[in-house]
Amino acid sequence: MGKKTDNTESSGKGSDAEEEEYAVEKIIDRRVRKGKVEYYLKWKGYAETENTWEPESNLDCQDLIQQYELSRKDEERAAASRRDRPSSSNKSKETTGRVSTSASTTSKRKSEEPAAPASNKSKRTTEADQDSTDSLQTGSTGFDRGLEAEKILGASDNNGRLTFLIQFKGVDQAEMVPSSVANLQIPQMVIHFYEERLSWYSDNED
């Protein structure tokens, strides 16, 4: 039950305040105003437009008040629990970060392992020849990479094309370079190479 004040006019006697009893159907909301607790009530037999805020001291429905307070506290605890619980997207992001870190660590360890030395000189020579052939096939030479020629080691006929085996500075393996490229890039070194060979043949003839 609750109390509402209803002022009605009595004929010939002015206004008399009559205090009537109303039945509370349910408690909808709660607030504290000027230090006093008030509840927003739905009155039994009245429309929603007749809902009013009433101070707790005016109410005689402790069962409804206790039920509402318990329900309100349960909702507050549930809301706090949802706020404290990390979202699934954050968990997924953390897991992905750990996996990525592990992968990068594994890659770093693998890159730090020393390269296995070549088993013998023959294997190194074969690899050098293969690299020289690859440079001819791709058309890329040490000159294209900005390297400086150090010495011409030899010459050969590669499928009808004259090529020079050139040692570049700062590079361990020599490269096969077409004679047309060598004549353009290092003409003096090519001339010196021919002069050495001519001198060698002249000495043999003597």
TrEMBL record:
GO terms for cellular component: heterochromatin; nucleus. Residues 1-21, 70-143 are annotated as: Disordered. The keyword Signal does not apply. Coiled coil: none annotated. Residues 70-96 have a biased composition (Basic and acidic residues). It holds the Pfam family Chromo. GO terms for biological process: heterochromatin formation. It comes from the Eukaryota. Residues 22-80, 147-205 form the Chromo domain. GO terms for molecular function: chromatin binding. Gene3D superfamilies: 2.40.50.40. It is found in: Chromosome; Nucleus. Keywords: Chromatin regulator, Chromosome, Nucleus, Repeat, Repressor, Transcription, Transcription regulation. PANTHER family: CHROMOBOX PROTEIN (PTHR22812). This is Heterochromatin protein 1. It comes from Drosophila rhopaloa. The gene is LOC108046759.
